[in-house]
Amino acid sequence: MIRSRSTAALHALALSVVLAAGAAAAKDTGYVFVSSENDHAVTVLDSKTWQVVKTIATGQRPRDMRLSPDRMALYVIASKGNRVDVIDIAQLKLTHSIPVGEDPEMFDLSPDGKRLYVSNEEDAQVSVIDVASRKPLAQIEVGEEPEGVRLSPDGKRLYATSEVANMVHVIDTATNKILANVVVANRPRRFAMTPDGGEVWVTSELGGQVTVLDGVSNKVKAKVTFTPKGFRADDVTPVGIAMTRDGKTAFVTLGRANHVAVVDVASRKVQDYVLVGNRAWGATLNRDESLLFVANGLSDDISIVDARSRKVLRSVPVGRVPHTVVIDD
Amino acid sequence: MHACMKLFLRFALGMVAALSLATPVAAATTTVRIVHLELDPDGRYDETRLFFRGLAQPLGRPFAGAEVALREARFVGQAIGVEFALERASGADAKALVAAVERLNKDGVRFFLIDAPGAVVAEVSKAARGRELLLFNVSAPDDALRQAQCQPNLLHTLPNDAMRADALAQFLVSKKWRSVLLLEGPRPEDRLQADAFERAAKRFGLKIAERKPFVLSNDPRQRDQGNVALLTAGADHDVVFVADSDGEFARSVPYRTVRSRPVVGAEGLAAAAWSWAWERHGAPQLNARLEKHAARKMADPDWAAWMAVKAVVEAVVRTQNAPFAALAKYLKGEEITLDGFKGNRLGFRAWDNQLRQPVLLATHNAVIERAPIAGFLHPTNNLDTLGFDQRDSRCAF
N or C: which end of chain A has fewer CB within 10 A? Predict the structure, then answer.
């Protein structure tokens, strides 16, 4: 115990030294990071050649990932490792880990990068973790199997889905208390938000739709349904969602229907369906929003979609069961 | 009240504690009561039988599954101002259970789970006909309950024999293991399983090489029926199907066959509602919840009881706890979306009240396939390739 603690402290020290020294070098590496649930690793791709630059071993079952606000570090949740691994982007090295409670799945970072908000699937709670001290600040009881967690743009509200209670919990981040429980379509998974936080979009995997919530009143405003050609309603299982920064376009991955839907946010109309790989879940836009990256969990590859022409540019094989894609461009 | 009737009522623990966990958003005003009825004693849960840990067999009383589902309902109940309560009632025979249903129904209970063999379920559901209640069968796989004995207010969350047989038959066809040696035990339930498999074989184009009865006996005069080597030494076949509702004989069939043939049915590879080894669609979390709660793994009837409570909760939530007729209509209707953690949207078949659902093909520690198997198609819902489709139904409510 004592030894591991001091080792961790040494690592943290080493990291801060590296961060200070290598700040310029790490910026905008052009690397694409893909977490692979069954390989217990993050695959690093070069976005010019699409070759694997490195495979970084992580804790068991890596899933959700996010860049630190300064884009120097990559946070990777290790679901079966009960921790968040921190990868230094300049060195492509796992530097330390933050314990985050049992069976974490998805997370968000506070805008200042100081707090992690983590869904703990098995314990039916959301943990608030202090990044610097690596200690839990609070645990918020929510419905069974919390999944998506997302902060409002101002960081004042936290949204969390419960896959089993079919609810979105709205949490006040100042008090860590639940402000509202909103019933949505079945098996709610993940979020996207308009830039002002006025609209919260949540995917419902089994309900086969996106529910649009009013970010102020917490009421259900609308729903978006999908009809990709050649698939029955029951095959449409939306999970991943990404929205452009201007809040005009949303990309929704349709899971078993193997398509990404392109949705006009204002009119809620689906403009296009793009065929991708098997069980398309994770969806991420690159920084200039020209490319959409989709993780195909059952074909072990990612699809790279031109966000304007809505054509698939290429698919790149990655590790087993890709979960999330993060681009440092 | 019947003399031999034993009636225990017990409010599920933890509800009050659970409800105080979060800031109340809407005050709980109404209580929706769900009663879990069980036959006690019930030979299917004898310690000696549970010891075999047969595939697709119970590992304990399914009440545990209902309790897990109740815990899952705490938040959503709070949001709509409803408190769900689970009670347990038992009786030694059908008469006692009928009396319990009558008494509790008069007391306002509308939702019942029944954990009893097929004959008891048939009697109880017949007596409950016309009453303002829904009865969920969670442990009787009998096809007859979905056909001639069907009742308008009896619903089934456990897959029936025909569904399980169809799932296995689809799998065998996909493997091109087309010729089957069918071994059938002495119990009436064994015969029902064997008949269901013959029906499925005919439906999907498998050949029954031979159908032979087996007995659990070391009697040398019966050795042709008790010895696996002798039973499997006849005409060649691709696979051995064992119809054994008890599981004691079936567990000794693999590796004792004369030829190197896989065993399916009650052993080897079984068609199951649930498997503790199922890892997709949130299954690990559900399995962990049941294990934490009951200190054992989750099996088919647990899943069926869990699913039944979930169905009631879903209907109450989506109809804002509507009056019974509207709520029952929604629950049985096309619109409902039930999440069985098996990947598909589930709902009840209008023609026989059977829950349509995927069936898992599982060994003792792995799920090999999920039926319907790719390529088995249906004009409206591929799940209806398993069991009685509308045109096969002989149910007239």
Answer: N
With beta carbons under 8 A apart, name residues in chain A contacting B344: 234
Subunit contact B73:A177, Cβ cutoff 8 A: no
CATH number of the domain at B178-261, please?
A: 3.40.50.2300
Phi, psi torsion values for B371, nearest 5 degrees:
-90, 150
Asked if ipTM goes beyond 0.90, one says no
**CB-CB under 8 Å, A164 with B339:** yes
B345/A186 Cβ within 8 A: yes
Could you tell me which CATH class the domain B15-160+275-358 is placed in? alpha beta
Q: What residues 12-31 of chain B have any CB closer than 8 A to a CB of chain A?
A: 21-23, 25
Chain A contacts of B345, Cβ < 8 Å?
Answer: 186, 206, 208, 234
**Per residue of chain B (397 residues), what is the pLDDT tens digit?**
444 444 444 433 333 333 334 444 445 489 999 999 999 999 999 998 888 888 988 999 999 999 999 999 988 888 889 999 999 999 999 999 999 999 999 999 999 999 999 999 999 999 999 999 999 999 999 999 999 999 999 999 999 999 999 999 999 999 999 999 999 999 999 999 999 999 999 999 999 999 999 999 888 898 989 999 999 999 999 999 999 999 999 999 999 999 999 999 999 999 999 999 999 998 999 999 999 999 999 999 999 999 999 999 999 999 999 999 999 999 999 999 999 999 999 999 999 999 999 999 999 999 999 999 999 999 999 999 999 999 999 999 9
Contact state of B76 with A165 under an 8 Å Cβ cutoff: yes
Q: In this structure, is the dihedral angle defined by the CA atoms of residues B149, B342, B366 and B384, taken in order, positive or negative?
A: positive
What is the CA A327 to chain-centroid distance, rounded? Answer: 12
Of B79, B285, B289, the CB nearest to A183: B79
Q: Cβ of B361: how many Cβ atoms within 10 Å?
A: 24
Q: Do domains B15-160+275-358 and B178-261 have the same CATH topology?
A: yes
Beta-carbon count within 10 A of B297 CB: 16
* Strand A83-88 relative to strand B154-156, pairing: unpaired
Instruction: Give the residue carrying structure tokens 């690592």.
Output: A11
Contact in structure between A149 and A171 (CB atoms under 8 Å) = no
Q: Where are the domains of chain B?
A: 15-160+275-358, 178-261
